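2024-03-11 09:14:02 INFO worker-7 job=invfold-0412 stage=load source=structure_tokens
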């Protein structure tokens, strides 16, 4: 079957229309699958922010970056805003990346990537700018501080965003009981943070290092630190150390007076029993040391060491007892005190026994008949009386003797 030329032309036109419709539908489907993808960015003030917009499927559709004021920064690879800080990193049909250097707090906000399809599709990326806190400073310290005075040290830092954290340390040990205050600058959106450390000055704090530490996410785990060395003045602390724990006659002894204070105490003063040292020839003072040679009983007494500085004075005492070496040697023989105690116990037990025995006999007294009672009263002698008594007990009751 042969087709006429007019009909063949109509058939070609119809095929062209069908192909065009199919291509239009495929393009529409491709446009519907195109979405720009972005990510939020956080950067430290003064740093560089990289903004990237990607499209997985793109049929030569243009991409554009706009700032929070809706000003176009880049349209494809063409720069639209005159700002030397903004540069093109990469431009293709699938990606548009730009960089913003020397970022300031004013650059913070929401940036928009636009894909010019029908309709236009957009994606948002929020740029967060961190305000770097200034180096902290410690105020309120006056040198020197007297022991017992109240100290108030304040640490302050400005320009942080968000608000920085302040921590106190004393010789690397954290101090928790502190006051914390933060104030926001409405114009710059930054914070001024301060913290106060309040305590009473103590001699143990002399030379201690007090540090104020500022932590912030913009510092990359490297905190800013301010330090202050404390200087505390206090009265002397005095102690006497003896070279001999059991001094004997004829020996020597050295008494050392240790005094610690700030300012450094003046030379110490030694006294005995409230007065001057009685024998300067044997009792020699050299700085803080008192030496006594050839000890004897007269050296017994209370020795006082006194130290002072511009803040005040303090003293301590040492009681010296000189022992007799002979008395000490005699203690190695028999213990007379122990023997005397044993004898006393024996005597006491004996007396108690005698008393008890006497009371027993008194309660059990008996009788007996004498030889004379047993015999006749007219017996010439004792033998005859005994013989006579064998047969007669007359008047025996009258001759009884009692015993106790």
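2024-03-11 09:14:09 INFO worker-7 stage=emit residues=404
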């Amino acid at each position: 079957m042969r087709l006429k030329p007019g009909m063949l032309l109509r058939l070609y036109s119809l095929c062209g229309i069908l192909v065009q419709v199919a291509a239009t539908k495929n393009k529409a489907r491709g446009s519907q699958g195109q979405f720009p993808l972005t990510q939020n960015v956080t950067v430290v003030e003064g740093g560089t922010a990289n903004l990237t917009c990607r499209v997985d499927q793109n049929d030569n559709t243009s991409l554009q970056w706009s700032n929070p004021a809706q000003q176009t920064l880049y349209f494809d690879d063409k720069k639209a805003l005159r700002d030397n800080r903004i540069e093109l990193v990469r431009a293709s049909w699938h990606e548009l990346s730009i960089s913003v250097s020397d970022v300031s707090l004013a650059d913070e906000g929401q940036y928009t990537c636009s894909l010019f399809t029908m309709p236009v599709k957009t994606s948002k990326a929020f740029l967060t700018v961190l305000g770097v806190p200034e180096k902290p400073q410690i105020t309120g310290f006056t040198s020197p501080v007297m022991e017992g005075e109240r100290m108030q040290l304040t640490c302050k830092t400005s320009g942080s965003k968000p608000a920085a954290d302040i921590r106190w340390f004393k010789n690397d040990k954290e101090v928790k009981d502190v006051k914390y205050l933060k104030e926001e600058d409405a114009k710059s959106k930054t914070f001024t943070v301060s913290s106060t450390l309040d305590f009473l000055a103590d001699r143990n704090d002399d030379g201690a290092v007090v540090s104020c530490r500022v932590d912030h996410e913009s510092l990359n785990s490297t905190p800013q630190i301010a330090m202050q060395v404390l200087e505390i003045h206090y009265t002397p602390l005095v102690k006497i150390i003896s070279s001999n724990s059991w001094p004997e006659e004829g020996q020597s002894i050295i008494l050392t007076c240790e005094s610690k204070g700030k300012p450094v105490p003046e030379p110490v003063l030694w006294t005995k029993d409230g007065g001057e040292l009685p024998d300067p020839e044997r009792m020699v003072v050299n700085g803080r040391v008192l030496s006594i040679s050839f000890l004897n009983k007269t050296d017994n007494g209370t020795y006082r060491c006194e130290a002072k500085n511009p803040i005040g004075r303090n003293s301590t005492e040492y009681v010296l007892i000189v022992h007799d070496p002979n008395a000490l040697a005699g203690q190695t023989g028999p213990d007379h005190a122990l023997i005397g105690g044993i004898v006393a116990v024996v005597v006491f037990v004996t007396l108690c026994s005698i008393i008890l025995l006497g009371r027993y006999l008194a309660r059990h007294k008996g009788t007996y008949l004498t030889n004379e009672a047993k015999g006749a009263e007219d017996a010439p002698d004792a033998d005859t009386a005994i013989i006579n008594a064998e047969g007669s007990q007359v008047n025996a009751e009258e001759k009884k003797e009692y015993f106790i």
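2024-03-11 09:14:09 INFO worker-7 stage=report msg="Residues 5-32 form the longest helix (28 residues)."
2024-03-11 09:14:10 INFO worker-7 job finished
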